[in-house]
Amino acid sequence: MKRRTKPVAPDELLEGRDYYLERGRMVFTEAFLKARGHCCESGCRHCPYGFGPEGLRKKLEAEQKSQRELKSQSQPLR
Fold first, then answer.
1. Which residues have C-beta within 8 Å of that of residue 6, sequence separation ≥ 6?
2. Which of 12, 26, 31, 39 could cross-link 49 (Cys pair, CB 3.0–4.6 Å)?
3. Is the predicted pLDDT of residue 4 greater than 60, yes or no?
4. What are 37-68's pLDDT values in tens digits?
5. What's the pLDDT score for residue 78?
6. What is the number of helices (H) and of strands (E) in the chain?
7. How far apart are CA 41 and CA 39, in angstroms?
8. pTM exceeds 0.85, yes or no
């Protein structure tokens, strides 16, 4: 599949190929996201880069755990 090198204008998107509508919102397809060539890390449902909803949840949990560990390390011992 050819990678896109410039932003896609809304009139260039093809429903069914690049996206579908769900409850009035555009949901990008995996094929479109791959062709776009980069990840926006927004938790796209069909993300081919590992930042779909599950990947995003894991990333957030890891960041929260890291912050808790840093906070506990910086507290003085009693």
1. none
2. 39
3. no
4. 999 988 899 999 988 888 888 888 989 999 99
5. 61
6. 2, 2
7. 5
8. no
Please state the length of the chain.
Answer: 78
The predicted structure's pLDDT at residue 60: 86
Taking CA atoms, 58 is separated from 22, 47, 64, 67, 68, in Å, by: 25, 14, 10, 14, 15
- Residue spans of the domains in the chain: they are 15-74
26 closest CA partner among 46, 7, 41, 56: 46
Residues paired with 19 in a beta bridge? 15, 28
